[in-house]
Design brief:
The chain is an all-alpha fold. The chain has seven helices and no strands. The protein has one domain. The longest helix is centred in the first third of the chain and has 15 residues.
């Protein structure tokens, strides 16, 4: 169907832009990475450099608002959206406590000690 849409209408859609994806689609980390890069870079225009944008805008809502909420709950590779960000952009220089909201259950003693150093 994707080939037909590209041929007929001249647009290419990603599989995650359809109503549903095949079973176990999000088990493949490459699919998760590609969808996340598509969301951040193509939909939101993030260039990988504007860390302030990520700090204040990156959260579950941007995935849910773009029909990728299922990826967050279906992929065995994703514990938090922050882990996902670090998997997709391993060189990103940001700590979890710098986000507008820190990950759920993040503030345990070890992480608090790390943040205070």
């Amino acid at each position: 169907m994707n080939i037909y849409i590209k041929y007929k209408y001249g647009i290419q859609l990603n599989i995650w832009e359809f109503i549903s994806v095949p079973n176990n689609f999000w088990y493949d980390m490459n699919n998760v990475i590609n969808a996340t890069k598509w969301l951040l870079e193509e939909i939101y225009g993030w260039d990988g450099e504007d860390i302030e944008w990520i700090k204040y805008n990156y959260n579950n809502d941007i995935f849910n608002n773009n029909k990728l909420g299922g990826m967050l709950v279906s992929s065995p590779h994703i514990k938090t959206t922050y882990d996902l960000l670090y998997n997709v952009y391993p060189d990103i220089d940001i700590f979890p406590w710098e986000f507008k909201m820190s990950p759920k259950n993040y503030w345990i003693k070890e992480n608090a000690d790390l943040a205070l150093k």
